[in-house]
UniProtKB/TrEMBL annotation:
Domain (Fibronectin type-III) ranges: 131-228, 233-334, 419-515
InterPro entries, alphabetized: FN3_dom, FN3_sf, Ig-like_dom, Ig-like_dom_sf, Ig-like_fold, Ig_sub, Ig_V-set
Pfam families, per database record: fn3, V-set
Domain of life: Eukaryota
Keyword Signal attached: yes
PROSITE patterns: FN3, IG_LIKE
Keywords (A to Z) from UniProt: Disulfide bond, Immunoglobulin domain, Repeat, Signal
Lineage: Eukaryota, Metazoa, Chordata, Craniata, Vertebrata
Name of the protein in its database record: Down syndrome cell adhesion molecule
Annotated organism of origin: Ameca splendens
Residues spanning the membrane: none
Signal peptide: 1-21
Domain Ig-like: residue ranges: 29-128
Length: 533
């Protein structure tokens, strides 16, 4: 009896058709296909189902999808769908964007007619967290020295994103030379890179990082910063006096790295020195088209034996750069030649002047008629003078009334033209090469604030040589910028409305040091207008 029972168990095991496959390991966010197949050519199309967990005695436990062999009958969610060719018996289950929670045992049952004939297939799926998906990054704004980029946070791979990395390089350089900045503020979707060079072409790409690893590189942005005025003056300026009335000016362009774009022209400024007044006269300028690596021009119509000062400036489409060191040169002395013809002409001129003098000496005596005419003319002039005086008085009264009206209008206009007060700028944090700041708008004046802009420069430079200007909309009150060169910088802001621009805000002093040693200092200098607001 025991032998018969054992045989029955063996027969049951053979007829149940269990098949177990090797485990499948997948990564969070990917598509996974679980395969199950029967001989549709022999059986025809058969019903089947997929469920989670071990296959029960009938049907599918925790059923996720079901088919009659020709079409889909039901499914637990849209993440589950059938793939493969049903006509040949491919009952494949594909799971879309798997999660760690999808890990476990999956069972497939093929409903074959007859007792204990169903074909059963089990597979174990393991879903592990993975690296974040690549980022899609886009350009928002390009200026002379700044780039603002924006991105959409990618799928995190099953683990929270812990940082973003921004890689920047010159277009034709290798990515091995790229400067990489880590952005630890994972809530950000936009940053501004500063301290770029004008008229240069760069490449930018980004990465997302989580506890598993770093994503593949994003798409690559290729952009060229706008031109700026040259930073350096023309060099090797030389002056040469050609004659009593002309001076030749020779120079070379600024250093290539300081040109900040294509040089279009040069401005030659010159003026003469007045030896009597001991000062230089009014400045005169001459424009010369930029054509080659050594330029020259000739200043003409000058005065002889006179000293001139000369300055040269290079110019791009964005403006003129600094002037060269002042150079001085004097025109040649004027040399007068004395000839026989000149001597004869002088004698003739002297004879003519003597004759004129003799004629003028014999002046006729004044007659009574002449005296009467003079008296009449004087009377007429007196009447004209009186009329003009009265006209002047009347005119003066009219001008005074008009002036009062104009002053009243100007005062009224002045009272209604009120620009906004400057914002108050604060520093959130400095992490690696990223600077996070915020600002509080002041009194908006007589018109709503339409925007803000930030000025950014090296601490030892003048505000006239601002490194970057970044615009913000009226509803923005914070920003993050990336500084690629460690140093100390000054940051200030302005508010704008339709009436004008505010005065400068307080100044932030921020120091970017080598990685791992970043620190920042905040200046508490606040303008008078900010205090009053």
């Amino acid at each position: 009896m025991r032998f018969i029972t054992l045989c029955c168990y063996l027969v049951f095991w053979v007829n149940t058709g269990y098949v177990s496959a090797n485990p499948i390991i997948a990564t969070v966010g990917t598509y996974v296909t679980l395969r199950c197949k029967y001989d549709a050519g022999y059986y025809g199309r058969l019903p089947f189902c997929w469920g989670r967990g071990h296959i029960p005695k009938s049907g599918c436990g925790n059923e996720v999808i079901k088919s009659d062999g020709t079409k889909l009958l039901s499914r637990l969610s849209e993440r589950y769908f059938l793939t493969g060719d049903l006509a040949v018996g491919e009952a494949f289950l594909t799971i879309k964007e798997v999660q760690e929670s999808d890990s476990g045992i999956y069972g497939c049952r093929i409903d074959i007619p007859g007792w204990f004939n169903d074909q059963k297939y089990e597979v174990t799926l393991t879903v592990n967290p993975g690296r974040p998906f690549p980022i899609k990054v886009e350009t928002r704004e390009v200026r002379e020295r700044t780039l603002t980029v924006r991105w959409t946070p990618p799928f995190d791979g099953g683990r929270p994103i812990t940082a973003y990395k921004v890689a920047l390089k010159y277009k034709y350089a290798s990515w091995d030379t790229a400067k990489i900045t880590e952005v630890a503020q994972t809530h950000l979707i936009q940053v501004t890179l500063v301290d770029l060079r004008p008229a240069k072409t760069y490449n930018v790409r980004m990465f997302a990082v989580n506890s598993v690893g770093m994503s593949e590189a994003s798409n690559v942005l290729i952009f060229t910063t706008k031109e700026a005025a040259p930073e350096g003056p023309p060099v090797d300026v030389q002056l040469q006096a050609l004659s009593s009335y002309s001076i030749k000016v020779i120079w070379k362009p600024p250093n290539v790295e300081l040109r900040n774009g294509v040089l279009r022209s040069y401005i030659i400024s010159y003026r003469e020195y007045d030896r009597v007044a001991l000062q230089f006269q009014k400045l005169q300028q001459l424009s010369v088209t930029a054509t080659r690596e050594e330029e020259s021009t000739i200043l003409t119509n000058l005065n002889p034996s006179t000293q001139y000062s000369v300055l040269v400036q290079a110019k791009t489409n964005a403006g003129a750069g600094p002037a060269s060191t002042t150079s001085f040169c004097s025109t040649l002395d004027e040399v007068k030649e004395t000839t026989a013809a000149t001597t004869l002409l002088s004698l003739t001129t002297a004879s003519n002047k003597l004759t004129q003098y003799t004629t003028l000496t014999n002046v006729k005596e004044t007659t009574p008629a002449t005296t009467l005419l003079s008296s009449t003319a004087a009377s007429t002039k007196l009447m004209q003078t009186t009329t003009l005086t009265n006209a002047h008085t009347t005119s003066t009264g009219t001008i005074s009334t008009s002036t009062v009206r104009e002053r009243s209008t100007l005062q009224s206009t002045h009272l209604t033209t009120v620009p906004p007060d400057p914002p108050v700028v604060g520093l959130k944090e400095v992490i690696n090469n990223t600077i996070s700041l915020f600002w509080t708008p002041g009194f908006e004046g007589n018109s709503p604030i339409t925007g803000f802009y930030l000025e950014y420069k090296a601490a030892n430079a003048s505000w006239d040589y601002t490194k970057a200007i970044v615009d913000f909309s009226s509803n923005e009150t914070d920003a993050t910028i990336i500084e690629i060169n460690p140093s100390t910088y000054n940051i200030r802001m302005f508010a704008k409305n339709s009436m004008g621009t505010s005065k400068a805000s307080n100044v932030l002093i921020v120091t970017i040091e080598d990685r791992g040693q970043q620190q920042s200092n905040f200046s508490t200098t606040v303008t008078t207008i900010t205090q009053s607001s």
